[in-house]
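Look over this today:
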Amino acid sequence: MATTAEQPTTRPIAAARRRLADRDGVLSWAFLVPSVVYIVALVGLPFGLAIAFAFSDVSAGDPSYDFVGLRNFRRVVDDPVFWRSVGNTFVFTLISMALIVLLGKVLANILVADFRGKWVVRFLVLLPWTTPVALSSISWLWLLDSIYSPIDWVLRQFGALGPVENMYWLGQPGLSMTSVIAVHVWRLTPLAAVIMMAGLMSIPKEIDEAARVDGAGYWRRMFEITIPLVLPVAAIAALFGAIFTFTDMAVVRVLTRGGPNDSTQVLASWAFYRGIDGGDVAQGAVIALFLFPLLLAAAVLILRAVRKIEVR
């Protein structure tokens, strides 16, 4: 008797649940809630704290909050190391992105080719991206050692270096920046290759086959079909690479610690050294805030370029 009495009350509840589940607006907000909580907790709150710290005199020795206005901004702008870090950040990002997109396109063509052992090749290509950055950078520390570098040994075998001559890869300004860029490109190229591989695989085979029937050669198909169709995907790969490069400090910290003489210092590493190692939390927050408008401008420019390409 109890079950029959409960049935009339449970049916309207079940029907209400079904109607609620069928409403697109409710489902969309329900699915968005975890992402919103994640972004607010891990991005919004730290960003708000950085803005608050930038207008204070908070330090590791005195965590009390005192409003100081624009004093920290003036001190940062007057610091020559800050401007050197800005210049290094642009050099580091532009050169890295050009190489990452170019090499990523080359690797993507290899990855989409059909040959025996392609899965092994794909695994080896992805290995630099999946390897922890601290572990891979320590390996590069040995490869770029001023005395025991295997790279120097190879150069001696080809006669590029004398019997007792060494390359100070991490001890000279030009070579140290070259080394940092090379390691960063080595890390991010697999990511760009995978993104562009997806773009290459999305190109309909009928287009390429029709071009072959019309007598188009490899280079003509490359510049008139493949590259135009892959450009939007390549721009997205460049956007991801620019974000990772602008905010990356792991390679600089492990390899050079910004040296020699701050020649490899970038904004992310200088913010860390000032705010965490130096204990000046306020100035570290100011330096970190300069990354936001640069990243925003880069993202807007790249997304506008992608939109123009897609419209064409």
Q: What stands out?
A: The two ends are 70 Å apart (CA to CA). The longest helix spans residues 80-112. The chain has 14 helices and no strands.
